[in-house]
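Ticket #4471: structure output looks truncated?

Reporter: J.K.
Steps to reproduce: submitted the chain below (396 residues) through the standard prediction queue, then opened the result file.
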Amino acid sequence: MSSFNFEVKAGQDLLVEEKPVEIVERKGKGHPDSLCDGAAEELSVALSQIYREKTRRILHHNVDKAVLVGGKSECTFGGGKILEPIRVFIVGRATEEYSGEKLFDQNLLEERIKSWLMKQVRHFRPEHLEVKLLMRCGSKDLVTIFTDEDNPPPANDTSLAVAHAPLTEVERLVLETEKFLNSEEGKKKFPALGEDIKIMGVRHGESINLTVAAAFVASQVKNREEYEEIKKEVVNYLKNEFIPRYTHRPVSININNADTKNSAYLTVTGTSAEAGDDGQVGRGNRACGLITPYRPMSLEAIAGKNPVSHVGKIYSIMSQLIANRIVERMPETRQVYVYMVSRINQPITEPQVINVELWGLDAARVKEEVKAIVDEVLGSWREIRDGFLEGRWPIY
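Returned output as attached by the reporter:
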């Protein structure tokens, strides 16, 4: 692998686990922001598959600007109805023609995005959703990057990415709690829960609090008494059976704190998007699946960007793979941060800088081992590119 500015140094700050306070957030798959991230990425995958099928290569596209305009609904215990649909707009650049042939039918792509949305929120129906794609051709200087899939493409921008490992107890707890509540098992156990679930985890010293905002599906709840009973059941299950798998610290749980005597978090479909809560790409989870203000983070939104040359996307996965492999192969690592910066028009395998911060290891002693991991990940650029099409990498 070509040389680049590479540095491994000892971390100086306290470990996040040792700080007096830690805050972690996750927006579930039915949150309006997550729906935007996922819809944009689904469009990128669809375009990439079409391009590969028709031209044997992924052509230029960036469809990473998406906004969800919340609908309007009315509901009460026992049911409700959608009065105005949820509207999703995805804006970006895409190659529309190749050798004089039109490459895609926009109406079919819009139907694919609608179908994807309906898989994320199980009570969505076609009439609940409107999807509009607003795509134009890209600039010629970027389009020419996509002519050779056999060699590392030049970076389309100067971008940065940062990743960390391993997850703290609070990070793991927040991530796994949302995943469980939105899993098939979770929905069987608590069918009244929708997919719009947001969890905020706060640790003060050794005590953890989870604040859960969970949209309930009105048709699955007969009355206020049943609603309150289900909330208690969720809290009791999490505290007594689920949470002990991840921490022995004391954990308190609050669910739907905004409820009042006259209001409850009820929805027709299971997401707040139906009643005026809007969404946007890049406002939700980072590539690690979490929002972690006590960690270094990039504001890069990776959903919808092309997987060939958009280093903001590619390096987000590369940096996470590097961090994970360092922890896996050097178990004494207590904490690692990986920073990557590209240089526009240079091969994506030749970053401007990679900086690794380590806790628990002698940085000088392990530098060559870390460098080998870095080179290994950079050399897997084809696998990383294709992994986006296969849904192998976390996006949000």
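Triage note (M.O.): checked the attachment and the full token line is present. The domain at 20-28+171-279 is CATH 3.30.300.340 (GMP Synthetase; Chain A, domain 3).
Status: closed, working as intended.
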